[in-house]
Amino acid sequence: MWLFLFVLWIILNGRITLELVIFGILIATAVTLFTDRVIGYRMSTDVSILRNLPLIFMYVVYLIWQIILSALTLAGMVFRAEDPDPVIVEFHSGLMNESSNVLLANSITLTPGTITVFQEGDRFVIHCLKPEFGEGLEDSTFIRLLKKIK
Question: Where does the chain have alpha helices with state H?
Answer without folding.
Answer: 2-13, 18-34, 43-51, 53-79, 98-110, 141-148
